[in-house]
């Protein structure tokens, strides 16, 4: 009953949990040398050994029999700093691949719609092309063409783009956002699911920008995987999606002060720094003014902690799909069925916090045709 390559799955499990071979020996009692040899296929795994590891890590035994993911890990896009470590990057990739597998299983089982996103194919994209694709994306997400986006996460989820928080550790010092990772995304293409993972912990406006940036990758780079300037294109797209050009032109000018940027931040849910960049990218202010504004931000300590709090958005789609199939306490049974550690499900499909808005508390409707509506309103 063992998988064709249990060694590969064992390595995947270690990456997923962030454990060295020594650490895994310590918690499972299975010798490091055995783990090493199984992973490199220089010896066969025994069911006993794998069972001991499964038990020690609270992982369903079925994990070792799962077919590896279809996500081409090399093409995953990360929003991260160059300093992010290789070990962490590997862990994030694995976490993402397993999450995509779960997402695919859930949306397929529930016949949830796949994203109707536009996509770029041309080799060269001008800034105007990116503005246009951002406008088309708003239309695809059924958002007004020129208004602030009240809840970007919900708009994405409603349209079939799943959003998942990646909580890799309880230790805030070790959270990937501290190690330079912000988000990661993949879309299998037209008619296929899409998933955006992000690392919670920053302020609401930063998380929204990360999501918008990742949507940029889905739209701009799914069919242009070798685009030379992908990060900059995704940033431009994020600004355009969150604050369309015409509205930026009305509101941002060479004379706009920090006070005005703070006011715009409250309205648009975009950080003051991103708004300054947006204005600069549209030639609404020059380089000298941009630099002066950033010096002012620094002197007030606002580069790290800006004024004006933008509320954080909580995802709901994966929880909804999970609880509809496995009930209101889904993690344990779902983990068995999906062959994944339950801690991972708690991360990517967190139980929603009760809110005062009654619409969020309505139970999911039973018909799969109604999935578009369940609780996924703004
Ligand atoms: Zn990126």
Topology record:
Elements: H1 6-17, H2 21-28, H3 32-39, H4 47-56, E1 77-80, H5 86-109, H6 127-140, H7 152-158, E2 161-165, H8 176-179, E3 181-187, E4 194-198, H9 204-221, H10 230-242, H11 245-251, H12 258-268, H13 272-281, H14 287-299, H15 317-326, H16 331-338, H17 342-348
Parallel strand pairs: 2-4
Antiparallel strand pairs: 1-3, 3-4
Bound molecules: zinc ion.
Zinc ion is lined by residues 77, 79, 213, 217, 231, 234.
Describe, in plain words, how this protein is organized in 3D:
- This protein has helices at residues 6-17, 21-28, 32-39, 47-56, 86-109, 127-140, 152-158, 176-179, 204-221, 230-242, 245-251, 258-268, 272-281, 287-299, 317-326, 331-338, 342-348, and strands spanning 77-80, 161-165, 181-187, 194-198.
- With 378 residues, the chain is mainly alpha-helical.
- The protein has 2 domains: 1-68, 434 Repressor (Amino-terminal Domain) (Orthogonal Bundle); 72-352, no CATH class.
- Strands 1-3-4-2 form a 4-stranded mixed sheet, with helices on both faces.
- Helix 2 (21-28) crosses helix 3 (32-39), helix 6 (127-140) packs across helix 10 (230-242) and helix 16 packs across helix 17 (342-348).
- The longest helix is centred in the first third of the chain and has 24 residues, at 86-109.
- The radius of gyration is 22 Å and the shape is elongated.
Brief description of this entry?
The protein contains 17 helices and four strands.
């Amino acid at each position: 009953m063992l998988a064709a390559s249990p060694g590969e799955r064992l390595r995947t499990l270690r990456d997923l949990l962030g454990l060295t071979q020594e650490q895994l020996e310590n918690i499972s009692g299975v010798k490091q040398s055995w783990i090493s040899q199984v992973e490199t296929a220089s010896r066969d795994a025994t069911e006993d050994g794998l069972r001991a590891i499964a038990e020690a890590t609270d992982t369903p035994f079925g994990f070792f029999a799962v077919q590896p993911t279809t996500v081409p890990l090399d093409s995953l896009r990360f929003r991260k700093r160059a300093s992010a470590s290789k070990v962490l990057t590997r862990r994030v990739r694995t976490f993402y691949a397993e999450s995509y597998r779960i997402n695919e299983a859930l949306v397929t089982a529930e016949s949830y719609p796949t994203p109707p996103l536009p996509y770029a194919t041309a080799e060269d994209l001008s800034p105007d092309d990116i503005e246009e694709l951002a406008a088309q994306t708003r239309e695809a997400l059924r958002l007004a063409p020129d208004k602030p986006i009240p809840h970007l996460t919900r708009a994405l989820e409603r349209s079939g783009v799943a959003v998942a928080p990646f909580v890799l550790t309880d230790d805030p010092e070790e959270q990937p956002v501290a190690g330079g990772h912000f988000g990661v995304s993949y879309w299998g293409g037209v008619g296929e699911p899409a998933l955006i993972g992000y690392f919670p912990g920053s302020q609401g406006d930063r998380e929204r920008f990360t999501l918008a940036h990742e949507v940029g990758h889905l739209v701009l780079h799914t069919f242009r995987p070798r685009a030379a300037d992908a990060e900059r294109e995704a940033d431009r797209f994020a600004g355009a999606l969150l604050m369309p050009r015409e509205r930026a032109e009305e509101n941002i000018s060479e004379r706009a002060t920090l006070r005005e940027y703070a006011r715009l931040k409250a309205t648009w849910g975009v950080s003051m720094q991103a708004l300054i960049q947006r204005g600069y990218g549209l030639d609404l202010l020059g380089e000298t003014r941009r630099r002066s504004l950033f010096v002012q931000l620094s002197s007030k300590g606002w580069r790290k902690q800006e004024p004006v709090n933008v509320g954080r958005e909580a995802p709901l789609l994966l929880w909804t799909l999970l609880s509809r199939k496995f009930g209101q306490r889904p993690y344990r049974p779902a983990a068995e069925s999906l062959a994944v550690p339950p801690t991972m499900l708690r991360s990517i499909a967190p139980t929603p916090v009760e809110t005062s808005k009654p619409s969020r508390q309505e139970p999911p409707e039973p018909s799969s045709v109604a999935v578009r509506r369940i609780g996924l309103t703004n």
